[in-house]
Amino acid sequence: SYQSFFYSLTVFFSGKLTGALTWQFWQEIPQHFPNVQLDQFVIMPNHIHGIIIIQPSPVETLHCKVYTKY
What we know:
Elements: E1 5-12, H1 19-32, E2 36-43, E3 47-54
Antiparallel strand pairs: 1-3, 2-3
């Protein structure tokens, strides 16, 4: 059984992002990181505060033979 991790984030941005665009970017995070779940967030004038939940995922490794010449 794996344990989930909760993180509180503060993300600063430069330039002007509208609230709708910031909301859209926040909602798209799980599309890029499937093991992330979103919780509450609040949009401030130049940054956002949010909580994400990271679900651990198994890591696959590939085994390959490495040949060396002596």
